[in-house]
Amino acid sequence: MGLLDGKVAVVTGAASGIGRAAASLLASEGAAVVVVDVAEGPGEEAAAELKGRFVRADVADPAAWDAVVDTAEGELGGLDLAYLNAGVTTGEADIARLTDAQYRRIMGPNVDGVVFGLRAVVPAMSRRGGGAVVATASLAGLIAFDADPIYTLTKHAVVGLVRALAPQLQAQGITVNAVCPGIVDTPLVGDEAKRLLHQAQFPLIAPRQIAQAVLACMTGSVTGEAFVCQAGREPVPYRFPRVPGPRLAGAEGRLPPAGMAGADQVPGRPPAVS
After folding, report:
1. Under DSSP, is residue 199 helix (H, G, I), strand (E, B) or coil?
2. Which residues are identified as catalytic?
3. Res. 102: pLDDT tops 70
4. At what angle do helices 113-127 and 149-170 cross, to 10 degrees?
5. Cα 113 from Cα 163, distance rounded (Å)
6. C-alpha to C-alpha distance for 20 and 18, rounded to whole angstroms
7. pLDDT in tens, 191-201
8. C-alpha pair distances (Å), 7 with each of 2, 37, 125, 200, 238
9. 166 and 122 in contact (C-beta within 8 Å)?
10. Taking the CA of residue 103 as centre, how many other CA atoms within 13 Å lie in the half-sphere pointing to its CB?
11. Alpha-carbon separation of residue 128 from 10, 120, 124, 264 (angstroms)
12. Is the predicted pLDDT of residue 262 greater than 50, yes or no?
């Protein structure tokens, strides 16, 4: 008996790297997997290996998501789990040198793919009575990664979207979380970068470690979290500091005590995203 027996999962960017490791782990736990990727050959190979289904799709194209959901529901019986993982980098640190093509290329999978993916999978999960969504962000979604500022922008967007959607999706029985890895040993990290990291004795994260964090999110009850994933460490939810609120004048012009509700807190902050 696997943890995911009877479940149907969609994994984007599943032909290689983290996506392939995650698809493999979900399948080993009993899930039927829809492998989604733009790379047709490797995608078909992955789907055959996992006894799943392959859908060639550009996740940045909203129309492409119809085929993904139709495959999950029409061929596998429904949709319970989604790992929105597809993404790219620009490799450009200098904002003055950023081209329109670089900008449009990264915004497609990294932001549009997550937005359109959520929009497509949430109704399908609701029809099943609930589910779980995980999106790949990055440590660059939590820190100022100046080596690729636009990549950093996209991953901050993913973290913000996950945190903002959590309360409304929770009401539908759907959890949504982000995994925020450091540097993972995938094709996205070039050979020269890997060589330099190895020389510096900087450990790369194995893709399977991220896959295990994804599985933990899908089988747990927490929602609205951004899990930091570092080599040799267990995933931990990042603790966002509270934003200072306004200091409101009292009836006679006095400031309320700092601990009073409304004095230094943001009203209505959901407890799931502390």
Report:
1. helix
2. 151
3. yes
4. 20
5. 17
6. 6
7. 656 555 455 55
8. 10, 20, 11, 42, 28
9. no
10. 7
11. 14, 14, 7, 41
12. no
226 with 142: CB under 8 angstroms?
Answer: yes
Could you give the domains of the chain?
A: 8-240 (3.40.50.720), 242-274 (no CATH)
Amino acid 112 reads D
Whether residue 146 has pLDDT greater than 90: yes
> Checking DSSP bridges between strand 236-237 and strand 226-229, what pairing results, if any?
antiparallel
State the pairing for strand pair 53-56/32-37. Answer: parallel
d(Cα 153, Cα 211) in Å, to the nearest integer? 24
How far is CA 53 from its chain centroid? 21
- Report which secondary-structure segment, H or E, holds 192: helix 191-199
Q: What is the pLDDT of residue 184?
A: 72
Please count the other Cβ atoms lying within 10 Å of the Cβ belonging to residue 212: 18
- Dihedrals phi, psi of 27, to nearest 5 degrees: -65, -40
**Which residues are CB-contacts of 27 (< 8 A; sequence separation ≥ 6)?**
33, 50, 51, 52
Taking the model in full, what pTM does it have?
0.86
